[in-house]
Amino acid sequence: MSFAELIDTYWLYFLVGQYPKGPLGGLALTVLLGALALVLAFPLGVLFGLARVAPQRWLRWPVTALVYAVRGTPLLMVVFWAYFFLPSVTGHKTDQFSTMLAALVVFDGAYIAEIVRAGIQGLPKGQMECARSLGFSYAAAMRTVILPQATRHMLPSLVNQFVSTLKETSLGYIIGLSEVSFIASQINTQVLTRPTEVYLILGGTYFVLCFGLSRLAYAVEARQRRRLAPAKAFS
Amino acid sequence: MIEIQNVNKWYGKYHALVDVNETVARGEVVVVCGPSGSGKSTLIRTLNRLEPIGSGRIRIGGQDIHAPGLDVNRFRAGIGFVFQQFNLFPHLNVLDNCTLAPIHLRRMAPAEAREQAMALLQRVGLAHKAAAFPSELSGGQQQRVAIARALAMKPPLMLFDEPTSALDPEMVGEVLLVMRDLARDGMTMVCVTHEMGFAREVADRVLFMDRGAVLERGTPEEFFGRPRHPRAKQFLSDIRTPFAAALRA
Lengths: 235, 249
Known about the structure:
The complex is a heterodimer.
Chain A: H1 3-16, H2 26-52, H3 57-71, H4 75-90, H5 96-121, H6 125-134, H7 138-168, H8 180-191, H9 195-227
Chain B: E1 2-11, E2 14-24, E3 29-33, H1 40-46, E4 55-60, E5 63-64, H2 72-77, E6 79-82, H3 94-105, H4 110-123, H5 139-151, E7 157-161, H6 169-184, E8 188-192, H7 196-202, E9 205-210, E10 213-218, H8 220-225, H9 230-240, H10 242-248
Parallel strand pairs in B: 3-8, 3-9, 6-7, 7-8
Antiparallel strand pairs in B: 1-2, 1-4, 4-5, 9-10
Helix pairs in contact in B: 3-4, 3-5, 4-5, 5-6, 9-10
C-alpha cells in the first residue's frame, strides 16, 4: 500500500473513527475530550487554587492533600483509579470517555491549582493589603485586584498545562477509548507495512494541535502586554 | 476622633507596642516619628485593623474598632490609608484606580465616580495623567495618585505610613505639599514620617516612639526645641548628623 493509498483509505477513520455508523472517535474525539477537559479543569483549578491560599484551614488542607496526592502519582494511575473506582462508587459502568474526562479534570485541576496559587502569591503583599484597607472584602479584593493581575502572570504556565492536557488525552488508549492514538494503532494493525508513516502522521497531528494552541496563547499574551504595561517592581 | 487606650501588642515574645495611650482630636495633624523598629508603623496599622492588637482598646469616632459584629470592611472604607510602597493597582489606569472603590463599595454611578476622581486628580496636580498606567508614573506621581485614591472614599481620617520613604529625594516635596494642603483643608491626619520639615510646619503635635512606647509628645516647637527624653534627644541629633550617628554605631 502506497502512502497516498494509506491517506486515501483511512483519512475519515482517522478524523472521526467509526462515526456516523459507530461511536465518534479519532481526532474529533481527541479534540472534544481535550477541549472539555480544559473547560472543566480550569474553573476547578481556580477554585482549588483559591482554596490553597485561603486563610481558612478547613478549605486549605483537603485541597492541599489532593494536590500532593495527584502530584505524587502518574496520570496513568489516576486513569486506572477512575476506571475501576468510579463504577464501584456509582454502581454502574462508566463509559471510557467520561472516565478519561474525570481523570483529566481532577489531574489537571490539581496542577492548575498550583499555577493559580503561585500566580497569587507572586504578587506583592501590599496589593491585597491595600485593597482591604480601601474597604474591599477578601473575596472582592481577590476578584477585582488580585486575580486580574495574577492571571497575567499565570498565562505562560497555563498554556503549558493546556498543551499537556491535549497530549494526555492519548492515555485514553489504555482503557480502549477510540481517540486518535488508538485509531492510529488500529490503522497500523490493519496496514502492517507502514508503521513509520502512520505514527509520523499521528505525531504531526499532535504537533499541529499543540503548536496552534501555543501560538494562540502567545497572541493573547502579546495583546495583553500591549494593553497593560508590566507592573513596576519596588523593593 | 481617635482614642487609643492601653494598647499592647506582642510578636511572639517581642513587645511591639507598650502601653500606648493617645488621643487625636478632629482636624488635628499628628506626626509619629522615631527610629526604625520603634513600632510607629505597627501603631498606625492597628488603627485600621491591618494589625491586630494584643490588649487595650481603640476607638475611632467613638466606635470601638474591635467590637464584635463590627463590619470591618465598612469601617476601613471610612479611613484613608497611604502606604510607603504606594500600592497602586498596576492593571488599572490612574482614573480607574481612583474610581474602583467608590463604584464597588459605595455604589457610586461610574460617571459620578469619574467626575469626582478627576476633581481629586486635579487637586493632586495629576489630572493630565488620568489615562496613564501606574508603571508610566514617577514614584512621587504614584504616591499622589494613591492619596487621591484614598480621598475618593471621602474619609474623615487619613493615615500615612511613611509616605515619602520610598521616594527619590527630589520627589518628596511634591507629596508633602499635597499632604500639607490636605491638612490645611482640615483633614484629621496621622503621619508616620521622618520628614522633620513637614512635622515642624504642618503638625499640631509630634509623638516620639522608641521600642514600642510613646516616649515624648508635644508641639513641634517643644519637641524640636526642647526634647526632654534622652532617646528623643539622641534621635534628633542622629538625624541631623547622620555621619556622626553612623560612626558611633
